Amino acid sequence: MTLFFGDKSSSMNEDRTRTSSDYEEFLRLFTRDQLRVLAYIRALIHDHSVANDVFQETSLELWRSFATFRRDEEFAPWALGIARHQVLKYWRTRDRDRHIFSETLLAEISTTAIGLASELEPRQEALDECVTLLSDRQRELIQLFYGENQSAAAIANAWNRSVHAVYKSLKVMRRSLLDCVESKLTDQTI
Fold first, then answer.
1. Contact 134, 173 (CB under 8 A)
2. What is the pLDDT of residues 150-175, one digit of tens each?
3. With a threshold of 0.70, does the pTM exceed it?
4. 3-state SS string over 111-133?
5. Cα-based angle 91, 97, 100 (whole degrees, multiple of 5)
6. Alpha-carbon gap, residue 51 to 44, rounded angstroms
7. Among positive and negative, which fits the CA dihedral 150, 155, 158, 164?
C-alpha cells in the first residue's frame, strides 16, 4: 500500500520552509516503514476499515510533523509514536463504548506492540522472499484474498473452483510460507 500525499508543489505552498529534498526524504523513509506503521495500527484496531482510516490520518500527521523529526534518529520509532497518538485519539472518541479498554491498558499494549515491531522486519523480509518462491497462481490467490480482501466464494466463482478448494489452497500456502519463513529466520541466526 503506497500513500500519495498530493501535489508536492501545493504542499510546499502551505509551508514554504519545506524543500523538495524534505519531501523526497520523507517519502523514502515513510515508504520503507509504512507497512510497519500499518501493522502496528492494525494490532490495536481490528476493524480493517477503521484501521486504514487511522493509518491515513497517521500518514498525514507524519508529513505535517516531519519538520520536527530529528534526522539523527530512527524514523520508525518516531512514526510509531505518532501512530500511537492517532490510535489513542481514535479510542478516546469511542469512550462511550463499553468494550473500550482504559487508556493505561492501551498504552501498555502500544508499548509492547512498538517493541515487537522491530522483530517484524526480519520476518517480513523472509516472508517477502518466500512469496517470490510461489507460483504466479499462488501469488495471485494471496493477492486476491489478503491484498484485495476478496472472499473465498468470489475467488472460487471467478476461478471455477469450489470454496473448499480455495480454502484448502490457502491453508497449504500458509503452512508452506510459515515453514519457509521459519527456515529463513533460523538460517539467519546460525
1. yes
2. 899 999 999 999 999 999 999 999 99
3. no
4. HHHHHHHHHHHHHHHHHHHHHHC
5. 50
6. 8
7. negative
